[in-house]
């Protein structure tokens, strides 16, 4: 089990409540700051998630930790008739709802407040589930993954986009310098929350990426688990399936 990292070291709140508070605080700046921090490459990564799912032609998709809805909006290009974007932060969802409205996608996308570790949906509800930069924020990773497996239909697909840590020189050293010093500094300069981007980099560093995460998914019950490192290994796309009943 990965070491638990929380946004606010001195807070008596649980991780879930702290994460909600943090994202509510940074929600207005989140999109623009994300583009700066990732140099815009996160858009390319999300397009790859869409390409993977487009081949499977899902009718229904649940996008967990949808945030401001970037992936949920992009998933319209899969042809799915029903997309639900779920997030624990009302502040992030408020921004996402405006984006959905501006793009006239209200009939395609529903944005709802919800807990990824206690999903309100019935068993076998969705053809696909996606998570973009959200699983490292789960309070208990295994519970969140089990809930995803439960709501997936038999033969349904899980696609996760998450940060990882490069293993090759010089990318490994460059990544450590960037996440430890530069990323928190950018966040401090442009965000209302001094702790937020320090937490985001620290939580990425302790996340069990690569084969370690693949093994967690297998233990939960997913099959055909693979991962695809992106951009020198600074992110990974994980693909898994639910068995046929």
Could you walk me through the main structural features you see in this protein, from its secondary elements to its overall organization?
There is one protein chain. By secondary structure, the protein is of the alpha/beta class. The chain is 44% helix and 20% strand. It contains eight helices and seven strands; from the N terminus they run H-H-E-H-E-H-E-E-H-E-H-H-H-E-E. Helix 3 links the parallel strand 1 (60-64) and strand 2 (82-87).
Spatial order of strands in the largest sheet: 3-2-1-4-5-7-6
Mean pLDDT: 92
Q: How is the biggest beta sheet arranged? A: 7 strands, mixed
Portion of residues in helices?
A: 40-55%
- Helix count, per DSSP? 8
Please identify the structural class as seen in this structure: alpha/beta
What radius of gyration results from the CA coordinates? 17 Å
Order of helices and strands: HHEHEHEEHEHHHEE
Instruction: Give the low-pLDDT segments.
Output: none
Approximate shape: globular
Can you count the beta strands? 7
Give the end-to-end Cα distance, rounded to a whole number of Å.
28 Å
- State which percent range the strand residues make up: 15-25%
